[in-house]
UniProtKB/TrEMBL annotation, chain A:
Membrane topology: Multi-pass membrane protein
Protein name, UniProt field: Sugar ABC transporter permease YjfF
InterPro entries assigned: ABC_transp_permease
Gene: yjfF
Taxonomy of the source species: Bacteria, Bacillati, Actinomycetota, Actinomycetes, Micrococcales
Pfam families, per the entry: BPD_transp_2
Keywords: Cell membrane, Membrane, Transmembrane, Transmembrane helix
TM segment ranges: 30-49, 55-81, 88-105, 111-133, 140-159, 186-204, 235-255, 288-308, 314-335
TrEMBL record, chain B:
Protein name: Sugar ABC transporter ATP-binding protein
PROSITE patterns referenced in this protein's UniProt entry, alphabetically: ABC_TRANSPORTER_2
Keyword check for Nucleotide-binding: yes
Entry keywords, A to Z: ATP-binding, Nucleotide-binding, Repeat, Transport
Organism the protein comes from: Isoptericola peretonis
Amino acid sequence: MTTLASSRRGAPSPDGLPSVGRRLRLDRRYLPVVGTLVVFALLLVVGGARYDNFLSVGVIANLFINNAFLIVLAVGMTFVILTGGIDLSVGSVLALSGVTAAYLLRAGVPAGVVIPLVVLVGSLIGLLVGAMVHVFEVQPFIATLAAMFFARGLCFLIAPESIPIDDETFVALASWDTWAGGQWRLTSSVMIALAVVAVAFYLLHYTQFGRTVYAIGGGEQSARLMGLPVARTKVLVYVISGTCAGLGGLLFAMFSRSGYSLTGVGMELDAIAAVVIGGTLLTGGTGFVLGSVLGVLVLGLIQTIVTFEGTLSSWWTKIVIGALLLVFVVLQRLLALRRS
Amino acid sequence: MTPAAGPADRAAPVVEMYGITVERSGVLVLDDVDLTLRPGEVHALMGENGAGKSTLIGALTGTVPIRSGDVLVDGEPRTPESVARSRAEGIATVFQESRLSPHLTVAENVMIGHEVRRWYGIDWARTREHASAALATLGLEDVDPRAPLEALSPATKQLVAVARAIVLEPRVLVLDEPTSSLDEAEAARLLGVVRRLRDQGVAVLFVSHFLEQVFEVSDRMTVLRGGRVVGEFRTAEVERAELISKMIGEDIDALQALRSQRLAHHYAGSGEATLRATSVGRRGTLEPTDVDLSRGEVVGFAGLRGSGRTELGRLMSGVERPDSGELWLDGVRVQLRTPGAALRHRIAMSSENLREDGIVAGLTARENIVLALQALRGWSRPLSRGEQDAVVDTYLDALRLSPDDLDRPAGELSGGTQQKVLLARLLATRPHVLILDEPTRGIDIGAKLDIQRRVAALAGDGVAVVFISSQLEEVVRLADRIVVLKDREKIGELSNGPGVTVDTIVEMIAAELDELDDEGS
């Protein structure tokens, strides 16, 4: 029991990434995340060696800009998966949020009203899912599958066609950016995404709610017998995931300057893939939100490399992601086996 | 029966439970149970497996719904709703098999739910300090509070669970089998902590199947049997032997006939063992043990819960693999790696929780019966309906199963019928050695009698039968020979005869206890 001594000083122990250089021995819980970090670095090296201009400010900045919405989705998904659940509705909720925003903006509703409203739509769907999971004890898979169809159906009810967004305030917000040192510029969407990550990190590691999320993933019955508020927490994680999906829809609308019913088909799977590649166990209880961010960046880098290659069909992205996912799941399994 | 007034009696009770009745799927698991916990007193809850101890704790902490009865805390009526609520009222519970979160750190497991919080959220440094302090009182200074819980040994985990309970300085501390995975030194340290808390005025409810520890630490005890209170005693005034017989209870006279019948057919013993275990043991489970089983003989394994009676059966039937010793079947050394391998050697075991684990609720009784036989034959050679009927019919009469039940889903059948179905399943494989662990637990008296008759008949047919039961009467009634176990060790063997009674076994176990006491003092 003394072999795991690792984080003797500094930040709280259940935090994100330890600074590897300072500690020789690494806590096993961080291994999957470190694995992701290694893959990320490898992809950067491979890309940098094969293509000119790969390691440029533009490419790296675009990695964040193009994936801001996915980062937000993955953060919400991390909460759900940490409790041992799953949320299949986020892709559809993202579309619903985007379509609603575009529709309302076209109808002349001011952006200041639309923006909080569409995020709330996501929260509301999350609340419904949470209630189904908690009150009626529906499997999260089924409950969120129902919500997925429901939200997608609503999109088409609102508008089957793509609605362009030309509301001035919204466009101004979408194209706003600020200087962040050197050649780096920080766009509004990236700032929002990073803020979401920071809030999620705080919630997970510095609040009782966050610790309860982990405890539920480690064993729901145990968490209940430890006297933790299991019911409330389980509902809340779906609310958080729904809210993140609503916010993700907003970011995607900012990114594409439109709202379209068919956006985000299968995006929930990208989010799940990012979370798993980021080192979170699908059985719940272990994982870090920063890992999920890394997972998104790895997915984004693969896509960038495929784009740089030029001759490759974009489906290669899926194949590589599939292979990577397989490797990570097997690695996690091996880690779990070694532990027991 | 009424305990004499002592100093603790004058203190007002913290917790009073009156007429607690709990029903689970139509069976009363607690029937009109009273319990009073007073400050500054360790109250032991005694009883065999299934007596209702854990259910009573569940009723107190709100994890088990109460059908009727009253719970009073400080004289005020309460409805226990949840662990969180009872914790808020100062009742801390350490549940059996330490219910903690494996991925969280040790410190978190102690502190989660009551972390030290500041304006910015959880203050981890202070939180860890509190956890370390609680761990230190239990002698766990060496444990890194930042290590994940899953890295710890079961014993340390159990102590961490206790640390979690005491860190909030509760007024009532409920300990359900807190010492089950502790070694002697660790247990002694824990009992020391319990005593200290008692002296500070905490009311402790202590459940353990280790009698010595109960006698060492408790002031008062309530004995439960079959969901009812047998009595409340002051520990100082109760005899060990008397207590054991109270826990185990007496049975219905109708079974006496079987006893005399068995005595009449008492097996002389050919001296040739069919299954012989030589120093079979497993670290932490059972000390190396020698046992011989002969054809036509019923051997009873007697002992209290945790004595190793079940473990010995499991080690001899491939359910668990021994790490020492050898098994010899008809003079040939065998290695039983799995229950399936044992079955191919015609050694069958029905385990204690087989009714929960073993019955496939969705299949009919008939399908459940042929399951093991089919598995033995291999799935490529299915039993025809005619063969199935022949097998099932054989046991229909022998076990007095109702034909109507055969085609009903097994999950709908009563406990006794399910047990019969399981027995029929094992018998269908025509075992030479049959090990039955608690085959009569939790079933009605009629089914008990049927099963015991069948066991006697099996021995008559030349099967070597092992009968494991917490009901010593049953063991004495059925067995030709009784292997007595205590604290994971075989302490003796009795050849059953007219002179052997339940008391003979109880005295053997109690004598052992007294000896241990002498060593301790």
